[in-house]
Amino acid sequence: MKSMTGKFCLALGLLFGAAALADDPPPYKILILEDPDIDQRKVLGFVNKIRATPPYSQLGKQLAFEFVLGNKAKMDCKHPYDDIPRVVSCDSSYAADEGAKVGAHKVLNLANFTSGGGGGVSPTVGIGDTPETALHELGHSIAGLADEYEYSKSEAKFYCTMPTPDAKPNEAFFAPKLKVFPSDAMARSIHSKDIPWYDQILPATLITSGTDLGTPEGSFPLHIGRNKTVTGLYPGGSCNKLIPTWHSYQGDNAMNDADNSFFNPVQARALLRAMEKARGARFTGITLTALPTDPPVGSAATPAAPVTPTKTSAE
Ligand SMILES: [Zn+2]
Which of 36, 52, 234, 295 is the residue whose CA sits 20 to 30 A from 213? Predict the structure, then answer.
């Protein structure tokens, strides 16, 4: 009798286990679409780099990869712009068809080039380039993250659609509305809506230096990030030679240096939210505010009382 009950419980457990598995939302799936001529030994290096890099490394089984050898002619990988030879791309409608066949949310083309990459709906990386390039191009493609390095003037004319490009999760484009900001509070009330990551700027973080718009560099009590900076409003970025450009976080990262594998908190959140939207379900087990590259929450990361702006307005 006792053993019968045990078996019954085991059977029930298996039943519920199977039900739970069936109800799990599908993973976010990336199809690696390979030019058949590439060096196959390099493919895993790209996938392992993605798997090892936060926030992807936090996803476990909620992130999956498939591999398909593409049709070389249909992939049609090339350098599309004579003026910007580092850009490579492959045919996006073929990539979309192959992705749909396996239910992929994103297709990463691996092209048989010694270097280069490109964003777009289905991003591309030359197999001879670094695995970090794949992180950079997926950042563009999955979350619409902007380049944070400053384009040359001709590149800016090409990429920074006039008069003003749309704000990106990690970059905003606007001129300060005042020449002199009498207080940080006033700067916040005037420009909060211009800053897509505004809700991630802590109350204690200034977005003005003296009377100028822009977070002061590196002088904060709240060192929450790997680069000893906080999420703020920093001048500069991709379109800065043409349009005043602002970015969210200081220091090297995957979007200002294609050889870097660090996504800062603003970029990581944008990636996770975009992937969740694509798969139609939230991820579980993710810690957005304390990425593995940050020190533990509690000591230096404990939010301090709001800092009084250095200059306050009369009222
Ligand atoms: Zn880029």
Answer: 295
Q: Are 108 and 31 in contact (CB under 8 A)?
A: yes
Q: How confident is the model at residue 228 (pLDDT cuts 50, 70, 90)?
A: low
CA of 312 to the centre of ligand 1 (A): 40
Token pair belonging to 230: 């906080």
**Residue-wise pLDDT tens digits, 31-47:** 999 999 999 999 999 99
Note whether 147 and 256 are within 8 A (CB).
Answer: yes
pTM: 0.82
* Alpha helices, H only, 144-198: 153-159, 184-191
Give me ligand 1 centre to Cα 138, in Å.
9
**Annotated domain spans of the chain:** 27-143, 147-256+284-315
- Ligand 1 mean position to 174 CA, how many Å? 21
Compute the distance from residue 142 Cα to the ligand 1 centre, in Å.
12
